Amino acid sequence: MAWSLFWIVLGTLALAGWSRRRFRPGSGRSDGPALDDDAIRRIVEEGVIRADGEEPLDLEEIEEEERRFWEEDWEETEEW
């Protein structure tokens, strides 16, 4: 009984420490460009998001890939 209580408490503390470190604001982890107030105003005014260094999407290429995707014959099964 005492050992199971010990392991439960230890596991709970480990999980709390991990989640605290993972979700701490300002931990230096960045998944993309930061959005500040100026960027949000620009998005609202222009209706688009632009990040430095990104090329604009080629809409014709996207349409062509989508057309090819939907023309696929999905009834056939591939043999492995």
Describe the secondary-structure layout.
Elements: H1 2-22, H2 37-46, H3 59-71
Task: Name some characteristics of this structure.
0% strand; 80 residues; 3 helices
Give an overview of the whole structure.
It is a single chain. With 80 residues, the chain is mostly helical. The chain has helices at residues 2-22, 37-46, 59-71. The model has no long low-confidence stretch (mean pLDDT 79).
Write a short abstract of this structure.
The chain is mainly α and 80 residues long. Helix content is 55%, strand content 0%. It has helices at 2-22, 37-46, 59-71.
Using only C-alpha atoms, the radius of gyration works out to 25 Å
Q: Based on helices, strands and strand pairing, what is the structural class?
A: mainly alpha
Main β sheet profile: none
Tally of helical segments? 3
Low-confidence stretches: none
- Rounded mean pLDDT score: 79
Sum up the overall morphology in one term.
Answer: flat
Helical proportion? 55-70%
Beta-strand fraction estimate: under 5%
